[in-house]
Design a protein that fits this description.
By secondary structure, the protein is of the alpha/beta class. It has 8 helices and 7 strands. Helix 2 links the parallel strand 2 and strand 3. Bound molecules: nicotinamide-adenine-dinucleotide.
Length: about 270
């Protein structure tokens, strides 16, 4: 048990990546606070962890609203005494090209992906400093933050911003013994998230065919699942990573390392 006794907050706990990371942290002994703007995502994730024998709390919170974020962190501090780890996972995926993007949609995506991470990091880090907790903050980026993807202007911009937010926050917090690292997922195998949703009592969604054959395009020829990100998050949250800060841990089956004209398997 690598996280026994630790208190972790995970934002954006849908059955997909956030739910998978929350489950992975809980399986290593962490008490997990499941935070989401959709109450069912917060509550069902916490219930799922409790049903597996873990300890969890569901909190409804919009990460773009500073008063709500402050109240959420205060509730965790009052309930458990401190926060050891934060996983900034809440995000809005998908998008439009720079030619099409309406300003309100741009503003909301930047607010959730970038400002939400800033606000949660700010208030959790203040709590860590106040309680002298040598904590770990993890930022969920994306391979779309490393490369220019067509038709996804606000997502690419926000995720790229998060990579340097991570390094800058790591510099701000190093003297307090708080580590800040990013974790880069890529196109994710949908099956595990679907299965978790079904286990939470949700209907199985219709399978959507993807425009691109992602598994054929990554060097490892298969896509990561949320559990693979969870293992990386456990490492970054644990004392095993005690000298790791300002780092981006890519769990992308080699996607970013690939030389662009190479088609694996061709
Ligand atoms: N799915 C992928 O292939 C993929 C690839 C790379 C990176 N990522 C990143 O992983 C993270 C999770 O992705 P996912 O596929 O599980 O997406 P998802 O849509 O299933 O989950 C995102 C969660 O964030 C929550 N959320 C949205 N706005 C919020 C707000 N204002 N306050 C609090 N919660 C809010 C949603 O309700 C949802 O539960 C995102 O940051 C995403 O950018 C995903």
């Amino acid at each position: 048990m690598k996280l026994q006794g630790k208190i972790a907050i995970v934002t954006g706990t849908s059955p997909n990546i956030g739910g998978g990371i929350a489950q992975g942290l809980a399986d290593e002994g962490a008490t997990v606070v499941c935070v989401d703007v959709v109450p069912a995502n917060a509550e069902q994730c916490a219930d799922w962890i409790k049903g597996r024998g873990g300890t969890a709390l569901g909190v409804t919170c919009d990460v773009t609203d500073e008063a709500q974020v402050e109240a959420m962190v205060a509730r965790v501090r009052d309930t458990y005494g401190r926060v050891d780890a934060l996983v900034n996972n809440a995000g809005i995926l998908g998008g439009l090209s720079v030619l099409e993007m309406p300003l309100p949609r741009w503003n909301r995506q930047i607010a959730v992906n970038l400002t939400g991470t800033f606000l949660c990091t700010k208030h959790v880090a203040r709590c860590m400093v106040e309680r002298a907790t040598r904590g770990s903050i993890i930022v969920i980026a994306s391979t779309a933050g490393h490369q220019g993807q067509a038709g996804n202007i606000a997502y690419c911009t926000s995720k790229s911003g998060l990579l340097n937010f991570t390094r800058a926050a790591a510099m701000d917090l190093a003297r307090h013994g708080i580590r800040v690292n990013s974790l880069t997922p890529t196109a994710t195998d949908p099956e595990e998230g679907i299965e978790r949703g079904v286990a939470w009592g949700r209907p199985r969604p219709e399978q959507r065919s993807r425009l691109l054959d992602f598994p054929k395009m990554v060097p490892m020829q298969k896509l990561p699942s949320p559990r693979h990100y969870a293992r990386a998050a456990v490492f970054l949250a644990s004392d095993d990573a005690e000298m790791v800060t300002g780092f981006d841990l890519r769990v992308d089956a080699g996607a970013i390392a690939k030389y662009w004209p190479w088609v694996p398997g061709a």
